[in-house]
Design a protein that fits this description.
Number of domains: 4
Order of helices and strands: HHHHHHHHHHHHHHH
Mean pLDDT: 89
CATH class of the largest domain: Mainly Alpha
CATH architecture of the largest domain: Alpha Horseshoe
Number of helices: 15
Helix content: over 70%
Number of strands: 0
Largest sheet: none
CATH topology of the largest domain: Serine Threonine Protein Phosphatase 5, Tetratricopeptide repeat
Shape: globular
Low-confidence stretches: none
Radius of gyration: 22 Å
Amino acid sequence: MKLNTVGIALSYYREKYGLSMTQVCEGICSPATMFRIEEGYREVDSLVSATLLSRIGKQVLEFELLLNEKDYNLFRLRKDIHRNLEEKNLDTAEKLLQSYQSVMQKKQVLHEQYYLWGKAELLQKRGASKEEIKAVLNEAILLTKPFFGKRKNTSDLYSEMEIKLFLGLIQFSEDISWKEAELKRMLLFIRKYDSKKIKEQAEMSILKELASIQEEKGDAQKELEYIEQALTLVKESRTMRGLAELHFKKAGLLKELMQRNKDMQQEYQKQCQVELTMAYYTALVMDNVELVQKIKTTGDRV
């Protein structure tokens, strides 16, 4: 994708969704810079281009946005950091992250944000304290959401990185009201703007977190609604990953509701058996031996 094509795409979708330049670029660059990018007068690196595009739910291969050799080297470093974090080569990931910090553009919030995200990932995988991880995540979020925790942001748009950071912070927060409100805002954004590919990556995590909050609140009916949405999402995707677990979770919630509502006991019991059967055969296909055993034990008690 050529640089002027990036500007055309940003301008087209921003206007299509009725968004102002300030909403899209808040915390990333000034509206004046955004204007120059849209008009093709300003060259920015691939991380800035990709982040602005993701704020309006669009995604391209970052490789297509590369500006120059330095940009390419930073791009390769990000890929290597991701790979080593996923493979839990933590010492290697840390060295790469330090290299990234030493060569990244100074006073460029997105590169600093990426570095802090990597630092938080390392801290979490090494078992650091919640307070330490939260402090790094907060620092990273404030780089592009400067009014976070102070007042409502001008924009309820999120980049992919911002969604990762908020999901990370939500795991460590004890403020249920804030967690639920933030998750709902992210879910609304994803469903309104994001492409199917991005939705599959983020929506499931958000729905599971929302279901978990309802479990904390003791609202089995609302938790069931989020689990059903998650099941629909998996069924519409090309993967079976997590499907058995969701069917099993739904069966448990139906069992709980069955015990609370005697009038619906027969109907809930029937639905529960269906969900356990779905969970069992899906777990068999996925070779999830531990879950198969759990389902057998639960099925005997329904």
